[in-house]
Amino acid sequence: MDGNGRWAKKRGLPRIKGHEQGAETVREITTFCANHPEIKVLTLYAFSTENWKRPKPEVEFLTRLLERYLKNELPVYMKEGVRFETIGDLKPFGEKLKKRINETKEATKNNKKLIQVLALNYGGRDEIVRAANKACQRGVELKESNFDDFLDVPGLGDVDILVRTGGEMRLSNFLLWRSAYAELFFTNTLWPDFSPKEMEEIIYEFYKRERRFGGI
Ligand code: FPP
Asked: How many domains does the chain have?
């Protein structure tokens, strides 16, 4: 979800206004995906292991925004049939946010239309290292076929479509294991301007691509 800061700057607003508008886009895209018959999982990169480098007020604003979002969003999760999950290491976040996260997971655990996964303090390499350590501690030999069991939320499956907004053409440490065969889409649209219509265009384009998974 890249481009919140630039969206705000273009309008002469502080960066945090871009994050606020970005949260609105999260709601719209989540509702769109929950009502799409073939989308089962939506993973959103909300805070990376590198985002702690940002100025403290911006980090604090993002965590408060997240808390507020989860509080306001519960009726939407219930109405739209969305189960809430997170990936990433939640340890460094404040107790209030962690409590809200756990309550939201518990309240939505039986919802079936979509799993919305927020990547929080997430890094793909970090997830892989933690998975390897978990396996090691349990005395399990890692194989491609059992690696998923040790990821932050097992069973989410491989990524089909990976979208990056905001014009940069890199993965920035996102879902490194699960994206091995993902179809990549890069758009110049800034995240707050991203819309269900553009998502539909991406899905349309996805179905036109030939996926060979290494075969011919
Ligand atoms: C990247 O844009 C965006 C983030 C680091 C934060 C993403 C957060 C949200 C979309 C809102 C909160 C999330 C939820 C789930 C309510 P940037 O700030 O790097 O933008 P820039 O590249 O234009 O500076």
From this structure: 1
